[in-house]
């Protein structure tokens, strides 16, 4: 299908203001020195970290919070007294910000919500494991055929599986009547039906049209179960036949990166004719850390005597087997010494003439690092700002640990990232689309969104005409998790982890209590409009939540994205799916705070294409449960959210010309009782997360519709010159075009080419610019749409004259 044309330039949408300017709050005066946010300690309770609301007067307040290293969510909305943003804060961080005059309000979610999600997830995973151990049992509920209107026959089947997980797929096949071959009537995949998050049974969401009344139907399960039952005639009133059933709903719990990667690998094996796995070239660092142990509390008078040790190897490679003892020798005037006893490191502390310990933290650190045998196993460091002058206390054997809690099913080795490539023709001849999810670890809904889309494309290929067209005519690349290491850490160690797990900090920021602050924000690590180029929105602090890394594209995860875009030149469209807030955005995504210097805006034709496509894509999102993305949250990133220096959509647009969008799933939910919108957070209860995944999978399919329309677009645009104002001394005009396209024009009588002036936007959401001339002028122009179709088939690099031409006269005011 061709995306509907529009003659107007979305005047209504362009007229909507971005935000309301508010007066500044006196409490937000600039602090005397750069504020320091307290650190998050690693503990079972995760130090009470919660997702909090902060209201600032304007965007300068948002920039101030970002500069302070506050862990801001990708969420912003105008409120009566300014702008509401959300941040991940510990209790100490909350009080610190309040002390500085920030309006920190009530939490959206806290660790209680996290634990509830994990309990629900554990139950689902346990059920899956039990079900996978043996073939499931199928219980038939209904198997009937009936007629409706014009004697058209339909088939309705409902079967329940004892395996309740969403990976269980049931397939029904039926004969053509008594005595005919099984399966001669047809075969179809059944849809999993859930209600309030609970599995009910499998069915055809709508009855299937058939030609002959079957005698029996056989249902087989991907788990191995099978059952054959008679089909009876339904004696109820005839019903109007719906369109053929479209299968959806393939996820039933939040999944970690190991699960989602195994899922797409399994899909590629199941559908080898229309899919394959692409192994990305750069393996991640892995779900692993060095093992550590700390001595001393690091606070108050104990600061000077606090130090820690870090294993040279990762915990999973032997660091977790080490221990260290600080031993009181029980003798007078004993010297400080260090020794290795197998896997135990023993520090014999020095004493004075009375037998009191005299070794300071600094002396112990130096002794450990100076000992050849010990220093091959560990490195000792003073704690943060400690001067090491405090005397240490004896301590029993203390094991070193990497602190990681994921089960053994999660490998500690570097992760092999994979894309599933879906398409009938995967040779580069078709328009490519790149769908990728979970650049930020804590956004648990996004990977299941990508998984759902892959499932729908493959399982509907043989039975849904539109899906077959998409798979036949496009080359689709899906990466369900761009941040596997960080996502494993988020699910099992610290649910609010945003970044990957790499620690680039020096010793003063590498003690065990800093562990939840390490990592690189992958969506700030790209090379266009980056923090390294002076753009706003990326931190230079190794513990900052938007830390851009030590250099552009320093991370294997981001290099994998760039590799894919460069390797497969046919990729023309991309979608980066994040959460939360319900946004639909596109480049530019970054600016420099000084003068708000924005990356070059897309040209008029491309901007209108973004808007035009959004109509179809967001309508697809809305079709699942009625969710409407607000107009104020649709548009370029810098206009509707904030500056995100070094993000991936900018990378692909400016370096590769890829039309890239950003989803933020999880729109605010409106409460009719309170007449207020409520934010959903990064990890809503799965019943809500499931709905978000379903509706935004709809949106990803909508993007594929747009891409296919682009691929099939051979229709030329049509443009007109329209006079908008005239006086005795001047005439003002502009151009209109019947679809998103760029217009190239000349005013000096020369032949228009691709190097001629291009019609620009009058301003953000203000429509096309207006051109004023002060003498009679011959205007010559042509238009070209984004698919490369030239108006009137004009060849601007040739010698033809089949461009548009019109005289604009001055002096006529009628």
From TrEMBL:
Any one GO cellular component localisation term in the record: extracellular space
Bias-annotated ranges (Polar residues): 801-814
Signal sequence extent: 1-29
Broad class of enzyme this protein falls into: hydrolase
Reaction catalyzed: Releases a C-terminal residue, which may be hydrophobic or positively charged
Needed cofactors: Zn(2+)
GO BP annotations listed: proteolysis
Domain of life: Bacteria
Domain Peptidase M14: 378-707
Region annotation Disordered: where it falls in the sequence: 793-814
Gene Ontology MF terms: metallocarboxypeptidase activity; zinc ion binding
Stored SUPFAM superfamilies: Zn-dependent exopeptidases (SSF53187)
Xref: InterPro entries: GH29D-like_dom, Peptidase_M14
Pfam families: CHB_HEX_C_1, Peptidase_M14
Enzyme Commission number: 3.4.17.18
Family: Belongs to the peptidase M14 family.
Record's function text: Carboxypeptidase that possesses the specificities of both mammalian Cpase A and B. Thus shows broad substrate specificity, being able to cleave Cbz-Gly-Leu, Cbz-Gly-Val, Cbz-Gly-Phe, Cbz-Gly-Lys and Bz-Gly-Arg in vitro.
Protein name listed in UniProt: Zinc carboxypeptidase
Origin species: Streptomyces nodosus
